[in-house]
Amino acid sequence: MSNEESKGSDAQRYFLEHIAPALAQIAKDCEAKGMSIVALVEYEPTKGGLTAVGAPNRSSSFDLVMTAARSGGSVDGLMFAVMERARKHGHNSLILQQLGIPAIPAAPAAAAEGAVH
C-alpha cells in the first residue's frame, strides 16, 4: 500500500468514526426542530459522505444545494435533476424557459380527471 493510499484510509476511518456520527446527530437535531441541513464531506477526491435532511417547508435554494451535492460532480446529473424539479414544481429561470420547460407546472392528470365539467 502506498503512502497516499494509507492517508486515504486514515481519512476514511476518521470520517466514519468521528465526522459521520457527529453529522448524523446534528441532522437528527435539525430534523427535530424543523430545520434543513446539507453537509458534504470529501475525505478523498471523489470519496466522501453526504448528510442531508430537508424540512417540509424548505426553500428552493436548499433543494438546489442538496441536488448539487447529490449529483456527484456530474453537471449533466445536476441539470437533469434541476429540470425534473422545475417540471414538477415550476421555476423562474430564463435558461429553463429557453430549454422549453414551462414556468408553471401542468396540472396533474388525476386532478384534471376529477374536475367538474
Please describe what this structure looks like.
With 117 residues, this protein is of the alpha+beta class. It folds into two domains: 1-56, no CATH class; 71-110, no CATH class. It is built from five helices and two strands; from the N terminus they run αββαααα. The chain has helices at residues 3-32, 60-70, 75-89, 94-98, 109-113, and strands at residues 37-44, 47-53. The protein has a two-stranded antiparallel sheet. Strand 1 (37-44) and strand 2 (47-53) form a beta hairpin. It is flat and about 50 Å long.
Q: What's a concise summary of this model?
A:
The protein has 117 residues and is α+β, with helices and mostly antiparallel strands.
List the defining traits of the structure above:
two-stranded antiparallel ribbon, single chain, 117 residues, alpha+beta, 5 helices
> Which sequence of strands runs across the widest sheet?
1-2
Secondary structure tally, helices: 5
CA distance, first residue to last residue: 72 Å
Mean pLDDT equals 88
Q: In one word, what is the shape?
A: flat
Rg estimate, integer Å: 19 Å
How many structural domains can be distinguished in the coordinates? 2
Largest sheet: 2 strands, antiparallel
Return the string of H and E elements: HEEHHHH
Low-confidence stretches: none
Q: What share of residues are in beta strands? A: 5-15%
- The tally of beta strands, per DSSP, is 2
Share in helix:
55-70%
Query: What is the SS-derived class?
Result: alpha+beta
